[in-house]
């Protein structure tokens, strides 16, 4: 996820609680592109969550 507009839209949606429609309109992001990026972020989060136990005691 490299697009600054998409990153800002994701932040406003996930952190600030704005609706998907509002952030897509505000930042000029296509709803389909936003959904794809949200799915990617979700998959990365799941992977990090699954891998975390292997790194907790490694430090």
Question: Could you explain how this protein is built, in words?
Answer:
- The chain is 80% helix and 0% strand.
- With 59 residues, it is mostly helical.
- It has one domain (4-56): Arc Repressor Mutant, subunit A.
- The termini are far apart.
- InterPro entries: Adhesin_operon_reg_prot, Fimbrial_Adhesin_Reg.
Can you describe this structure in just a few lines?
Keywords: Transcription, Transcription regulation. With 59 residues, this protein is an all-alpha fold. The protein has helices spanning 4-16, 20-27, 31-56.
Named CATH architecture: Orthogonal Bundle
Q: What share of residues is helical?
A: over 70%
The number of helical segments is 3
Largest sheet: none
**Cα-atom Rg, whole angstroms?**
14 Å
CATH class assignment: Mainly Alpha
User: Hey, roughly how much beta strand do the residues contain?
Assistant: under 5%
Class by SSE composition: mainly alpha
What is the tally of beta strands?
0
Return the average pLDDT rounded to an integer.
94
N/C terminus separation: 29 Å
- Under CATH, the topology can be stated as Arc Repressor Mutant, subunit A
User: How many domain modules?
Assistant: 1
Shape: elongated
Low-confidence stretches: none
Spell out the helices and strands N to C.
Answer: HHH
């Amino acid at each position: 996820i490299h697009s600054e507009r998409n990153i800002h839209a994701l932040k406003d949606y996930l952190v600030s609680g704005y609706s998907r429609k509002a952030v897509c309109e505000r930042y000029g992001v296509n709803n389909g592109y936003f959904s794809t990026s949200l799915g990617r972020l979700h998959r990365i989060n799941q992977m990090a969550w699954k891998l975390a136990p292997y790194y907790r005691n490694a430090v």
